[in-house]
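Reading a protein record of the kind used here takes only a little practice. The record below shows the convention in full.

——
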Amino acid sequence: MTRLYQSPTVLWFTRRLAAALCACTAIAASAAPIYSVTDLGTLPGGTLSRAFGINSAGQVVGFATTATGQHAFAWNSGVMTDLGTLPGGTDFSRAFGINDQSQVAGWGEAASGPTAFEWQSGVMTELGTLPAEPVASRAFGINNLGQVVGFESTATADQALLWDNGTITSLGDLPGGANRSRAYGINDNSQVVGWSSAATGQRAFLWQSGVMTDLGDLPGGVNGSRVFGLNGLGEVVGYSGAATGTRAFVWQGGVMTDLGDLPGGVDGSKAFGINDGGEVVGFSGATHGAHAFLWTAGDGMLALNSLLDASGAGWNLTHAYGINTGGQIVGYGRSPSGEQHAFLLTPVPEPASLILLGLGAMLLYRRRA
């Protein structure tokens, strides 16, 4: 067996580097992340944009104004693409979900009224409805299997729907409900979340394989509960009435946890996105308006405005809606120009990450020596 020679200087440096790495890793584990801000801009002729969905590759969807209306967009690597509108309708469309195959779910105005669509490779396709003469349909969530969720509306009811490769399934409603349910999110296990009317009011639900489960509400709640997002582990986020007002929550394994609100909050808090790491995003009301937040089990609820690097100068982040597996966050706020723009937040590498790079370079040097 050949033993590589290590000079005293190299050996000393390696040990010091390893010690520094351990120290910085411990610090990073307890420190909140810092983010850089990317302004997603607007479509030609427009001044406003909002982002709602993001996939694992950092592709973002939402809507932006144009010179004549509002159009759904997909943003990727600095380029905002206009997804267009449905034939025969008004100059209006919005996108809410995108999967890792760049398939997009949303809704727009068609000749028959608000209509759910799926967009892929430049083609916007109406998803259809159940044979019940609906007056509208809307889509919000899409998973990596291409399954889409949303709801359809008639003159007297809303019905949560699952669109799956041409098949449309009604998800029903909770016991005691009055034919009123809506679906907003779906994961790759085909678990669906939304809210439904029930005997006790509007309640958040988790649906899987034909079974709709009432997720309950927070103690003291009188206004029911609603959910909008879930991750691959079946952890759910939304908001509920509570003894102290409206509160964002995370539901895990049958337990609903109140996430609180930001200091000075007066209008409560609402959660909309959660990734597989359990990081939650949403917004909290305060004296001077809404503020986007990040919640983690270790740090609690933090204002995203307090977690920005120099690129965040002049920004006021008001609403956060999605977070991906890499920790990137999307939403909208007041940009330095004073306009309401969609944003993408990207975590800035922590010191431990930089030291890891240095350690890798050091080891490569030793192998070549």
The helical segments are 8-30, 351-368. The longest helix spans residues 8-30. The chain is about 10% helix and 45% strand.
